Amino acid sequence: MDESNRSTQLDDGFRSREFKYLNIYKIFPLVLLLWLLFAVFPLVIWVGSNYFAEQTGLRPSVDWATLGTIGDMFGTANSFFSGFALIIAIITVRQQTTLLQLERRDFRLQLEEIQRSADAQEEMVKNQKSTLAASVVLPIVDQVRGAEYGNSAHTLGVYWRQHTIDAVGEDGLNSILNYFRDGGDASDPPINDAELAEKSRVEQLWRKAQSSFIGEFQRLRSITRAGEATEEEMHQWNEVNQARRVVVGVAQKIYRLSNAGIIDDPAVERVVVSSDMVALMKFVVRPLEMVLLGEHKQEKVVHDPIDHLCQLYSDRETAQVFY
Question: DSSP letter string over 226-267?
């Protein structure tokens, strides 16, 4: 039996009982009148007899003892009235109990209705958020797939590869790429001295390559700002710096949307940001950003937008990009 049928039966039952109880209450004034008549009957007899005696000069024929005997004649009536009072009390308690059941039922139905409304409101908010997320994410997806971002990523990749080769040579670059293909920092630990030595050698090559790459970026920035750069160097600086701005701009857009709660699902962010994008931001763009941030705040050691996106993929997932 569902809740609505049960509630209907409860209401109907209460109304039928209430009707019967009201019939009982209708005779209550008559019962009260009878009780008052029985209660004052002995007193009326005593007062009347005294009055008659005073008027006739005769001795009252009714005394208190006689009145007591007369009062005992109404013991049955007293029992009736006591029983009637008990019945009324029981009926009242049952009515109050039924009313409490109805109030609890109504309160429960109200709570269920409030919960349904809250669930519907929450679902509507989710749908609105999904619609809003789609409306702001799709343009970012188009931007990432567009020519500007693709050319920027290519420019930064070529720039990083060129200065890595200049620093450690082709063989050193291949060693670095093989290191990352095996997982980089997330790779299995060395099991013997030879593997430990090889890992240490590759890490030194990586630090040397990064130092050369970052140092060249700082040099180009410095001579360009000082007005000492050649036309070729100025062109290279503008190209690399503009490419950096494009990639960082995408990271900042996604980070702001995530902080605003518009994009609150990492799976959605992974649709927009692939592992190769994160690898580019982590190994190429972030070191350049640290150079720029370090010029303003020496204690700044984090880059919130890029660090946020780096959390979308594990170190091994980003390292596999070098395959």
Answer: HT---HHHHHHHHHHHHHHHHHHHHHHHHHHHHHTTSS--HH
User: Which of 231, 243, 319 is CA-nearest to residue 288?
Assistant: 243
Give CA–CA dist 5/279, Å, rounded: 63
Q: Residue 7: helix, strand or coil by DSSP?
A: helix
Query: What is the pTM (predicted TM-score) of this model?
Result: 0.59
The rounded distance, in Å, linking the Cα atoms of 250 and 144 is 8
Q: Which residue has the higher pLDDT, 253 or 128?
A: 253
Contact (CB, 8 A) for 9 and 101: no
**Which pair of structure tokens corresponds to residue 68?**
């007591």
Angle at alpha carbon of residue 300, lines to 144 and 320, rounded to 5°: 40
DSSP output for 63-100: -HHHHHHHHHTTHHHHHHHHHHHHHHHHHHHHHHHHHH
pLDDT at 247: 92
Q: How far apart are CA 78 and CA 76, in angstroms?
A: 5
| Greatest mean pLDDT among 39-48, 95-104, 227-236, 265-274 | 227-236
User: Which residues, including other chains, have CB under 8 Å from residue 229's CB and lie 6 or more apart?
Assistant: 220, 223, 237
Tokens coding 107: 């309160």
Q: Which residues contact 110 (CB under 8 A, 6 or more apart)?
A: none
Q: Which of 298, 290, 317 is CA-nearest to residue 213?
A: 290
